[in-house]
Amino acid sequence: MNGDRRRTRLAPPGLLLALFVLAGWLAAGTLLPHTVLAAGDSPIADVKARFTGDLPDMRKRKRIRALVTYSRTDFFFHKGRASGLQVDFLHEYEKFLNKGVKRADKRIHITFIPVPFNDLLPALKQGRGDIAAALLTITPQREKQVAFARGTRFKVDELLVTHKSVAGLEKIDDLAGRTVDVMDGSSYLEHLEALNRRLKKKGLPAVKIERADPPLLTEDILEMVNSGAMKITVVDDYKARLWARVLPNIRVHEKLRLSAGNPVGWAIRKQNTKLQASLDAFALKVRKGSLLGNMLFKRYYNDGRWMKNPLSREELAQMKKYIGLFRKYGRKYDFDYLVLMALGFQESGLDNRKKSHRGAVGIMQMLPSTAADKHVKVGNIRNAENNIHAATKYLAFLRDRYFSDPAIDAQNRLAFTLAAYNAGPANVQKICTRAKQMGLDPNVWFANVEVAAAKYIGRETVQYVAHIYKYYVAYKHASTMEGTDRIFLSAAGRGLLAAQGYESGVEQQRLVLPAAGRRWQDDGPLTRTVALKPQTP
């Protein structure tokens, strides 16, 4: 919300990078991160090395590498410090390991290595970390790959969580024929597939299982359910109860369990039997309820900055005004127009009357000085079309000038561009350098550069990109469209079309839909034909 587009004129990228490198030299070691990693000798080299030794070898190295997933429950930064449920667990385990060790130079330290959720087990098996620190449900499929530290106390139920408007769910079989959105790679998928097999035997329709786009974690899906963009999901009991404290529109169905009494635990390599024994002993000393339940959860999350439903009737009515403009300038500057619309929704709620205290105006919250820059040169940005044009042209400039390295793929190029729109390109380039110093991939935003951004410039830009992505996913999500455009796909959208005088009929309109698995860039569309005609008065 406070990017360079609202404060300063643009600077050449080479100069910005040179100034940053010079500043790093002048700062000697002070610019090097205290990192997501614990203190210790050569933490970055240690992170990059492959290692599969057991606990005695880890003690000699004085380091255990914990693979964590960056999320707003398990691992995140708050005021520059690593925080979250898994961080709390790992700190407790570090104390457990060092009990009775008085000399600081003999103590073992735990380092945090952020990876995407789907990479937890592969990274563990490859020796890129020593513990997959997530409360993973222990399933037969996972036990074929890794071992688990479970203890006897750690068991969870997988509960249905719905938007408050969802009715008619009295038993688990009532999911038949309904759509359920769950995190990709989760145990929820296995259990939903098992439910479908049981439903088939009973002659009932299958649950329509929707795998969320890979960057979306359970917390993101819960937020989308809270907004109404999604309706039903499945969540582990402790996480559902934690988030129910701050997401007022979700309903946790305690009696509707997809599965119950599931043992959960951290994963380790099968050959690391001594580490497993140590973790089992630690797990027996930690009660799930006390550590998880007493965390000061609202200290981090009770700020009210949750995503709104971009598919509500009111929001769809706003979109109807501007959708043609987003399509026009999306085509001109090679952006998926749904991404542009998601950005506009994040910036202003698609309200062209908005003006910030810094003087940014319109749907896309542009500063007149940025619009007048030689790289943009679009006047009268209080006009909605000019505002969208100026913002899209500026986005294209950021993308092509600062993030054109072939090593950055299309999805991450867009993520970096959105981050720069918010925080300024100089800040994003600095953060990419910081990410590299931390042993993260400087060409990947999700679970890499966003981790460095959260630590060094705060959570705002991370949340900003995440919210735009979630709005974009919400626009794509309801994929059974009927209407003149692929946005008008929900019941609210169809109602809006009916109110505008249309019904299913003869006039043919072509809709462009993203191919399966597409995100961000809509460069491989499928087409769908729908029929519309004005209603008879």
- Tell me the major beta sheet: 7 strands, mixed
Radius of gyration: 25 Å
Total strands: 13
Apparent shape: globular
Oligomer: single chain
Distance separating the two termini: 46 Å
SSE class: alpha/beta
Poorly predicted residue ranges:
4-46, 288-307, 478-537
Strand content: 15-25%
Tell me the number of helical segments per DSSP (H or I, 4 or more residues long). Answer: 21
Mean pLDDT: 76
The residue fraction in helices comes out at: 40-55%
What features would you describe in this structure?
The chain has helices spanning 13-26, 43-48, 55-61, 85-97, 120-125, 140-143, 187-201, 218-227, 237-244, 273-285, 288-293, 297-301, 313-333, 337-348, 368-372, 384-402, 410-423, 425-437, 445-456, 459-477, 491-499; strands at 63-68, 76-78, 81-83, 109-114, 131-137, 147-149, 155-163, 179-182, 208-211, 232-236, 250-268, 502-513, 526-534. With 537 residues, it is an alpha/beta fold. The strands form four sheets. Strands 1, 4, 5, 6, 7, 10 and 11 form a seven-stranded mixed β-sheet that branches. Helix 1 (13-26) crosses helix 18, helix 13 (313-333) crosses helix 14 and helix 18 (425-437) packs across helix 19. The model is unreliable at 4-46, 288-307 and 478-537 (pLDDT under 50).
